[in-house]
Specification:
The chain has helices at residues 15-26, 40-43, 58-66, 108-126, 174-179, 244-249, 253-263, 268-271, 273-280, 307-310, 319-337, 342-372, 377-392, 399-405, 410-445; strands at 7-11, 30-35, 54-56, 77-79, 81-85, 91-95, 103-106, 130-134, 137-142, 147-151, 157-161, 164-167, 186-191, 194-201, 215-221, 224-230, 236-243, 289-294, 297-298, 302-304. By secondary structure, the protein is of the alpha/beta class. The termini are far apart. The model has no long low-confidence stretch (mean pLDDT 86).
Length: 446
Amino acid sequence: MEGKDIQVSIIGGGLVGSLCACVLAKHGIRVKLYEYRDDVRKTGIVDDGRRMNLVLSERGISALRLAGLEDINKYTTPITGRMMHKSDGTRVPFPMDNKGRCTYSIVRKDLNESFDNILCITMTEKNPNVEIFFKHKFKSFDFKNRKFYLQGPEGEIKEKSSDLLIGCDGAHSAVRRQMAKTPRFDCSQSYFDNGYIEITMPPTATGEFAMEGDYLHFWPRKSVMLAALPNKDRSYTVSLFMPFEIFEQLSTREKLLQFFTENFPDAIPLIGKEKLVTDFFRITPSAMITIKCNPYHIEDKVMILGDAAHAMLPFNGQGMNAVSFEDCQILSELLSLHNYDLRKVLPAFTNRRHKDAQIVSDLAKATFTIMKRHTSKKFLLRSKIDNLLNSIFPSWIVLSTEVAFSRNSYAECFARKQKQDKILYLSLWSILIVVFAFFVSVWARL
């Protein structure tokens, strides 16, 4: 079978759906993409309502290259490390990588704009394999007959058919809801007990970054955390994470400023009091959801990618890279490997991705706890030990570095980390035993 013999319909024209369409079209596959929003070229609106910055690392960049998106760097700001702001005002830098590699911060709006421009103009006008239909909302799927139903621009119901339907319609996926009605499809969702809001830290009066511009800055404070990622215009997108109960308590300007004075006093002059108050009360806190399901496909007829398959918390910066973009690249690799036989490709995708997705999702939740405890001496010591051993023995991995700068599976990275933990703890115990034995022998001679 060849790619040109397959017709694929994609539900959702966001980041995942757009990239998936680009990648499949490269195979010669005929793609029809259905998006419930209007054409951005007509409305001029490219923001999907979320402002949280996204972080691009090697996994995501590799998938973008596959789709032919090479100039994404013009939208990004390099991140060379993390800068911890302690409660006493001191700051501690954590380099991203011993080899000088970096990740990239990008505003979601800019990435959406890049995809919209490339997909709508380049792919559609230059590649006859891609067709885009705006203001079309997915309603249901007839698995037996490979038919699905859409609500068109005028509210009319349209019947369509396709060899493969791919749901790229996000964490609240309508395609996944249809899949959940079939036997042996496991799916769960859970909301995090913390919410977040976003505040803009403007450039200085001279147009420079208010802090070091190549760092992810964060303020760990037990139950709350502030994090700031740089933007191309030299502003910062500042995200405040904390339990919803605390958000509810900060109901007035005075309470908000008192809260920041107690927890993040050094951030107040950088943001500005009026800007802080305006941005904080501009919108209600957003919720964060985790989606876990298995399998990611039904027979050879339908599958889900990205947040539709495994939405996760944003704390390790792998949601877009692993869950979204790398999904598209792996699907591309499996199509070639199995000669476009969907009966083999879809099960292979689930088998390859499920364990990784579970691990990285759990790791994302654990990362939030770890970041809030960055000030602990135990954590700082372990971080220094890992980096030292990595510089001496390159085979010794730093988990965050391995995840960011390689395409090794998350399961493999995590397994190596667990093995290293055992080696390190056994080594420490061995040293303690030797030291203890030495002092016992010395004492016995006295």
